[in-house]
Specification:
Strand 13, helix 5 and strand 14 form a beta-alpha-beta unit. Helix 2 crosses helix 5. The chain is α+β, with helices and mostly antiparallel strands. The longest helix has 36 residues.
């Protein structure tokens, strides 16, 4: 399985149209600078307002959960960008000849820098083979040693998640892309995002499935299933875009993913949950989430 691979389940993935909707993902090309320098936090929870809650302890917990979910969505965007750049470098021969480079592509954060790795894994002996790595900031081969045990752990988690998720997506005849990453140093996460969310033809959120593993990739700790909640939202030509969430406080991964992509493309965006309206103020690395509690 390839990082960022689109699974079509027997059908051909729709190509991006040239309509106004696809301009959303022009931000992905512009934002490639994200993987060419130190990692930055694109959007943070504002200290001037906490997510809707009635007491300090609950408000702090909600703010922390919102921030973690937001950072997760931005990490997945970074994986998208890394995959795009890595695929181009692979075509250019940066990983070596096609026969020498491994078949699996993985984006890893090492020393606060994105490193693209191609490899194969002997699943019986858990041994990495045909390993090659490229520093994305310089587009040059990395010569420093890599922790292959961490690479095997991510591959193990990815294979386990795919074996569980693919049957449901096949049954639903739903195309999806796969993104895998280490998150916050305490887990490996594998996310399956419907192609409808990513193809830019409509403003679509929901439908994702996330598999949260232990850091060694051996234990599946939790499954996040939003597969029943995929839906299209209104997309005005100009002005504020409001994403209506089904959640009480913390939006789903694709709701935050879409909000951050829209923000990168210069659109005003807010997410309305059951208890609050969260609005992104500023753009990109300067963007801050501001919260206004909703009246019961």
């Amino acid at each position: 399985m390839t990082q960022g691979e689109t699974h079509t389940n027997g059908s051909t993935m729709n190509h991006l149209t040239q309509s106004r909707h696809t301009r959303l993902f022009a931000a992905m090309a512009v934002a490639l600078t994200l993987v060419c320098g130190p990692l930055t936090a694109d959007a943070q929870v504002s200290s001037s307002g906490a997510p809707g809650a009635t007491d300090t302890t609950s408000a702090e917990a909600d703010a922390s959960a919102f921030d973690r979910a937001d950072r997760r969505s931005r990490s997945i965007i970074a994986q998208m960008l890394c995959t795009r750049q890595s695929s181009a470098l692979r075509r250019q021969g940066a990983f070596g000849s096609p026969d020498a480079a491994g078949s699996t592509l993985h984006c890893a954060v090492i020393d606060d820098r994105y490193v693209a790795v191609t490899f194969d894994v002997d699943t019986v002996q858990s041994v990495v083979q045909r390993l090659a790595a490229v520093e994305l900031a310089l587009s040059t081969r990395r010569t420093e040693p890599l922790d292959t045990a961490r690479i095997v752990a991510v591959d193990r988690a990815s294979r386990t998640a795919l074996s569980q998720a693919s049957a449901q997506f096949t049954q639903e005849q739903r195309q999806f892309a796969t993104y895998k990453h280490r998150f916050d140093g305490d887990s490996i996460e594998v996310w399956f995002v419907p192609a409808a969310v990513l193809n830019g033809q409509t403003l679509t959120v929901g439908g994702e499935r996330g598999y949260i593993f232990s850091p060694d990739g051996a234990m599946l700790a939790r499954i996040v299933d939003e597969s029943a909640h995929m839906r299209r939202l209104a997309w005005p030509d100009s002005g504020l875009i409001t994403i209506t969430s089904l959640s009480r406080v913390v939006p789903s991964m694709t709701e935050l993913l879409m909000a951050n992509l829209l923000n990168r493309n210069g659109r005003e965006v807010a997410i309305q949950t059951q208890t609050q309206v969260a609005t992104l103020v500023g753009q990109g690395s300067d963007a801050v989430w501001l919260f206004v509690a909703r009246t019961p």
